[in-house]
Specification:
By secondary structure, this protein is an alpha/beta fold. It is built from 16 helices and 9 strands.
Length: 423
């Protein structure tokens, strides 16, 4: 039998007409409207409108879980304001600072100095290093005064700074001449404001806007609009841009409802819904069927969850991996899953590969870490009258033993344990 040839590029038929529209990353595709967020966008509009009256924009804190349109909504209104400024010869600069990974105000300030300098000098400016944060803030003020006009600073995922709110304290009080500053903080952490210093809360919290989770109807409409732009032979009838008026020759009638339902039941995350539909479309397109069916959505969800599990487990420490394999071994051998029983098995597995061993209380901490990562589940129950409490650990509901073993079988540090568990 001849060997199977790998696929070539460029000759396949496709269901796509603009594949990037099904990218959830706003850096790759920016929606031109967010009808499900009209109320939130109206509040953003109100906060930014003073700029059109030669005033200062209001400071705003935007809250909401991941995938609720916060960043897209802020960028949409900022782009609209920029268009107005360009048409009316109003000097406006919008600076977007992604704060993820910047765990201190210092790192936010270095990024901000770089972005402000690039407004004047163009791309390629290095972040400053070796300065104290007060010096960095003075650099920010110098750059703002040089730029002039109105500057809106968007701090995305600002909760990354934790309790180090120095940058917020200083920026919310800054009043350099002759520039007008507006500060927009975006956070996934609904408790972030409460953790801020009282003075920062009073200064920054002029406006607060909450983006609550999308429901299934919202997600169906969002996916329908994306599908019309991304897929061929897909359109809205009667000029009504919602799911009930969607017509498509490449989507089965249940594909978008199933996708939206899956995402709504978990988090109401539009990004998750878009990624799921995108993966399902990729599977159908690669298969060459010409139609995206519900089975493609289910297969996509399974693949996404498997990839997420691989990423999560692969990033764990060796001791956590051994702890996880201990639970897998226990389940495959019908063990009780209680901490003491698991610890005895853990010691045997460590001895087999000559690894360092942990005391039971530290081993339990590793198990709890895996619970927090949603890889394990924990059940706390009584041993009986007067006998105290006991913890029982098992694989989380969507994690199966074979997936764990497949993920770790190529890890040289624990592969021998995988062989033992399978034997």
């Amino acid at each position: 039998m001849p060997a199977k040839m790998s696929k070539g590029f460029g000759n396949e038929e496709t269901i796509y007409q603009d594949i990037d529209v099904l990218e959830a990353d706003v850096g790759k595709y920016k929606p031109s409207e967010l009808p499900e967020r009209e109320d939130e966008l109206d509040k953003l509009h109100m906060a930014l409108r003073p700029v059109t009256m030669d005033g200062s924009p209001r400071d705003v804190l935007v809250y909401g879980p991941t995938g609720q349109g916060k960043t897209a909504g802020v960028q949409l209104k900022a782009d609209q304001l920029q268009a107005w400024a360009d048409e009316n010869d109003h000097q406006l600069e919008v600076v977007h600072i992604p704060c993820k990974g910047a765990d201190k105000s210092y790192h936010v300030l270095t990024r901000l100095v770089k972005e402000l300098r690039e407004i004047r000098k163009g791309q390629g400016v290095d972040e400053p290093s070796g300065y104290q944060r007060k010096q960095l803030f003075e650099m920010v003020l110098d750059e703002l005064e040089t730029i002039g006009g109105t500057v809106i600073i968007i701090l995305d995922e600002i909760d990354a700074i934790g309790e180090d709110d120095y940058v917020l304290y200083e920026l919310s009080r800054a009043n350099p001449d002759p520039v007008k500053i507006g500060l927009i903080g975006i956070t996934n952490d609904l408790q972030f404001r409460n953790n801020l210093d009282a003075d920062v809360r009073s200064s920054l919290g002029q406006r607060e806007i909450t983006f609550n989770p999308y429901n299934s109807k919202h997600l169906k409409n969002i996916l329908a609009r994306r599908a019309v732009l991304a897929l061929r032979d897909t359109y809205f009838e009667s000029g009504q841009e919602d799911f009930t008026h969607l017509q498509s020759e490449v989507l089965d009638s249940g594909t978008i409802p199933l996708t939206a339902s899956m995402a709504a039941q978990e988090t109401g995350d539009a990004r998750q819904a878009i990624e799921l539909l995108s993966y399902a479309c990729d599977l159908a397109d690669d298969e060459g069927t010409g139609t995206v069916a519900e089975r493609h959505v289910r297969a996509a969800k399974e693949e996404i969850e498997k990839e997420a599990l691989i990423d999560t487990i692969g990033a764990e420490t060796t001791q956590r991996k051994i702890a996880l394999l201990t639970v897998v071994s226990g389940e495959l051998n019908d063990s009780t899953g209680e901490t003491t029983s698991l610890h005895r098995l853990y010691l045997d597995l460590c001895n087999y590969i000559d690894a360092n061993t942990l005391k039971q209380h530290t081993f339990r901490e590793k198990l709890n870490d895996l619970v927090h990562s949603n890889v394990l589940a924990k059940d706390r129950h009584g041993r009986g009258r007067g006998q105290g409490m006991s913890n029982t650990y098992s694989l989380a509901g969507d994690v199966d033993p074979e997936s764990v073993l497949e993920t770790l079988e190529d890890d040289s540090r624990v592969s021998d344990i995988v062989d033992v568990v399978r034997s």
